[in-house]
Specification:
single chain; 397 residues; alpha/beta; Aspartate Aminotransferase, domain 1; Aspartate Aminotransferase, domain 2; 2 domains; 7-stranded mixed β-sheet; 4-stranded antiparallel β-sheet; 14 helices; binds pyridoxal-5'-phosphate
């Protein structure tokens, strides 16, 4: 079996990398271990880098480029094989990113002032894109299950649909920041309600390939006829193969009524025009890099277990929730006895760690932080040591 190296620490400073080079603008100091924004610190699978080098060195013209059959087929085959998701070319379009896709969908299917449902805590850019486009985010927040996990509040969802009359709902499937893999039954209920109340579902499945500990991703559009009728699926090889900077995203809309005009609008405005590295890396990733992904997931699982155990043994004030998917961990810090602003300051100024502030994911993120464990173990060990020492100093104050 090929050995993949996830242990080598690669210095990302001064490469225009947001994670390292935005520390001062985001956290006020450059002297922090960066474990925030959701990309990984691992080199991509060599098949991807070799294909890109060969293309760029082998042929010196980088002109206007079509999408091509092998590109589409690589997505179709991957979804069929891994998720049992049957899709065809005419149901798909290329998009230059998940949030650009959401922005386009909001602009096409809704109007200013329309309501869009979010289930917080959830990836903060959804709210920013919704509100930045002058739509109104309304909440159907997740509810804690008592065992440090969360579930959907489906009774409340029906109430929100009736009372708020939203046009769209974002389903983060799998969920970020907690890393929840939604069950088929939950998704079926959401889809049935959406159909009944005429709500389009934007299913963000960019973490669908990074399921952990035996959990299995269920594409929302596969769970029922209702789901197929109302769902816009947004997928990407970005998280899967650690290539989010290449801006390669695809949409699937099964319902021809829903997609026809939208895809025409996207095309005339040239919003689905692809670029050479995005197409090539996507195709090569889906075709050749599955073993890399499986090895990467094993490495992430070990990192997750390490952090969960480390907190249990050394930092009892922090409970690190094990995700079912993603390389992100939701840290419940309520038992540290700090208020949220103190907590955010504590992580940056005392522990010298750059983590995402839990409150950007919504009100339920109070006294929570999000830790990115898609990083070499050595860095994670250093980070946990810094955190333990800072917590110990806090106790002795
Ligand atoms: C759930 C989720 N969706 C979408 C994105 C961003 O997608 P893109 O970079 O393709 O806009 C992220 C990035 O972290 C994410 O966590």
């Amino acid at each position: 079996m090929t050995h993949y190296d996830f242990d080598t620490v690669i210095d990302r400073h001064n490469t225009h990398c947001k994670r390292t080079d935005n520390l001062v603008s985001e956290f006020g100091s450059k002297d922090l271990l960066p474990l925030w924004i959701a990309d990984m610190d691992f080199a991509v699978c060599s098949e991807i880098s070799e294909a890109l080098v060969n293309r760029f060195q082998g042929h010196p013209i980088y002109g206007y480029t079509n999408t091509y059959d092998e590109y589409w087929q690589s997505i179709i085959d991957w979804q069929r094989r891994r998720n049992g998701f049957e899709i065809s070319r005419e149901e798909m379009t290329f998009m230059p990113g998940g949030m650009p896709a959401l922005g386009m969908i909001l602009n096409f299917f809704t109007k200013p002032g329309d309501r869009v449902v979010l289930q917080e805590p959830v990836y903060y850019d959804f709210k920013d894109v919704i509100e930045g486009n002058h739509r109104l985010a309304v909440r159907n927040n997740l509810i804690p299950t008592g065992d440090h996990f969360y579930k959907m509040d489906l009774d409340d969802l029906e109430r929100v649909f009736i009372q708020q009359n939203p046009r769209l709902m974002v389903v983060c499937n799998p969920q970020n920041p907690i890393g929840i893999v939604w069950k088929k039954e939950e998704l079926q209920q959401v889809a049935a309600l959406a159909r009944r109340y005429n709500v389009i579902l934007f299913s963000d499945e960019v973490f669908g390939d990074i399921t952990l500990f035996g959990h299995k991703h269920t594409p929302l559009a596969t769970v029922s006829e209702d789901a197929a009728a109302v769902t816009i699926t947004c997928g990407s090889p970005g998280k899967t193969f650690n290539i989010p900077g290449l801006k390669s995203t695809w949409l699937v809309i099964k319902n021809p009524e829903l997609r026809r005009e939208f895809y025409r609008w996207v095309e005339v405005n040239e919003l689905c025009n692809a670029n050479i590295p995005a197409l090539l890396a996507t195709e090569v990733g889906y075709r050749k890099c599955e073993p890399w992904l499986e090895a990467c997931k094993k490495y992430i699982e070990q990192n997750v277990l390490y952090v969960a155990d480390y907190c249990k043994e050394n930092i009892p004030g922090i409970y690190a929730i094990k995700p079912q998917a993603s390389f992100l961990m939701w840290l419940d810090c309520r038992r540290l006895g700090l208020d949220h602003n103190e907590l955010v300051r504590f992580f940056a100024e005392e522990a010298h760690l750059a983590l995402n502030n839990g409150e950007i994911y919504g009100v339920p993120g109070y006294c929570h932080m999000r830790l990115n464990v898609g990083t070499p173990r050595a860095l994670l060990e250093k980070a946990m040591g810094q955190l333990r020492d800072a917590v110990d100093r806090l106790k002795n104050r």
